[in-house]
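Morning. Coffee machine broken again, so started the prediction first thing and wrote up yesterday's gels while waiting. Chain of 115 residues, entered below exactly as on the submission form.
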Amino acid sequence: MRWRDRYGLRRLRGPKVAKFDREATDADIEALIAFARSRRGVEFYVEPETFATDTTAVAVADDGEWTRRRVGSPAVIRKVARNLALPVYDVQLTGYPRRMRDYNERRRREEGDTL
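Came back before lunch.
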């Protein structure tokens, strides 16, 4: 039985992998898909690979709830977003949406976190 690259993680990522991070897996992509399908108004924001971390994507719902997962390369999340008919943005160009910061602030207040 041949292993399948279901989301194109190996094919689309290229030969480079961040030094200190683990590679993206199908489970990472499936978590983003599950998040997007279970919430309204989801948009993806691609974060670039750094020396320490692989390329990641943040999925942000209309209420600001968000999740971040490794995606291997921007091409992978673009493919996923296209299949889900959802927008994808480069966070270096657009920044994070205000609703994401508002959500984080609400969570801090609810938890009584005084950081």
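The chain has a mean pLDDT of 87. Going to sketch it on the whiteboard this afternoon.
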